[in-house]
Amino acid sequence: MTGADDNFDPYEHAEEAAATLAARSGVAAHDVAVILGSGWAPAADALGPPSMEMAMADLGGRAASVAGHSGTVRSVARGEGRALVFVGRVHAYEGHPLHAVVHAVRTALAAGCRTVVLTNAAGGINPTYRVGQAVLISDHLNLTGRSPLSGPAPPEPHGPRFVDLTDLYSASLRAQVAVAAASRGLPPGGPATLAEGVYAGLPGPHYETPAEIRMLRTLGADLVGMSTVHEAIAARHGGAAVLGISLVTNAAAGVTGEALDHAEVVAAGTAATADLGRLLAVAVDVAAAR
Predict the structure, then answer these.
(1) Which helix (H) or strand (E) is 246 found in, with range?
(2) What is the pTM of this model?
(3) Quick check: is 69 catalytic?
(4) What number is the average pLDDT over the span 171-198?
């Protein structure tokens, strides 16, 4: 299905993908979904060996074209729970419609996941952030001008599209992850607890100008990137608790005066692989226990 057909139903498409996933994995339901952004892929192995790995394209998803996004999905056992780990994502700036951008999230919800962990690479606007630091997302600014809930109203039994985003990024989940991370010595050599910040989602794929970063700072943003906001909205619409984690891969435009490059983003993730993997394991374990 391409979505060009007026009769295309993205929710039914997700249900079909979840049925395929259950058949291929032999797992009737999963508990937690993890979507790994740029620089995060090496951390996936910290969750343990997958019992199943397949291409997202086999679930009706689009192929990723950005370096660092393999476009695969894993089923991983974590204690008493099961995690769906999407190693990479597709972005709207690749030319995909938003139903394709959030297809992984909707598939995970249809597969039983009640918590969604969204990770990304982000530019640091907050001057206290350092490259390689992980920051919990407390809220976001959706500056893309788009919503995955636009278009025809969601069919029954899905809720109305006018979803409340007051607690989009679960405060209780952030608090639990921060406590659990601290008990395991995370973040190492950094502040006493994980930092929190507001993430600004822009369309991309170009980086922001220094003037735009000054604007975002005035609006209250601590981080900036080109993903996450649409997935978070789709997850909350589906009733899931959302945890967002940004990896600060560079200072945002104009903060240091240095040029920005996507290779730098991937390299920052590789350098922080061990710590990101430990943090990811903490987040999944906390989410699975809820």
Answers:
(1) strand 241-251
(2) 0.92
(3) yes
(4) 87
Whether residue 103 lies in the annotated active site: no
Q: For 246, phi and psi rounded to 5 degrees?
A: -100, 140
Is 150 one of the annotated active-site residues of the chain?
no
Has residue 2 been placed in a domain?
no
Among residues 222, 69, 205, the alpha carbon closest in space to that of 213 is found at 222
CA distance 66 to 262: 10
Is residue 1 assigned to a domain? Answer: no
Instruction: Give me the numbers of helices (H) and strands (E) for the chain, helices first please.
Output: 8, 9
Distance linking the first and last C-alpha atoms of the chain:
35
Q: Has residue 4 been placed in a domain?
A: no
Closest CA to 169 of 160, 161, 178: 178
Report pLDDT digits (tens) over 242-283: 999 999 988 876 565 666 565 666 666 566 778 899 999 999
Among the listed residues 18, 25, 64, 91, the single catalytic one is 91
Domain count, the chain: 1
Residue 106 lies in a domain: yes
- Catalytic site includes residue 226: yes
Concerning whether 91 is annotated as a catalytic residue, the answer is yes
Domain limits for position 66: 10-289
Question: What crossing angle do the helices spanning 273-289 and 262-271 adopt, rounded to 10°?
Answer: 70
Residue 94 designated active-site: yes
Structure tokens at 137: 């997302």
For residue 215, indicate whether it is catalytic.
no
38 catalytic, yes or no? yes
pLDDT digits (tens, 9 = 90+) for 26-36: 999 999 999 99
Between CA 270 and CA 265 the distance in angstroms is 9
The enclosing domain of 226 has a CATH number of: 3.40.50.1580
Which of 53, 262, 264, 267 is an active site residue?
A: 262
Query: Which letter does DSSP use for residue 72 in this model?
Result: E
Of 16, 70, 93, 215, the active-site residue reads 93
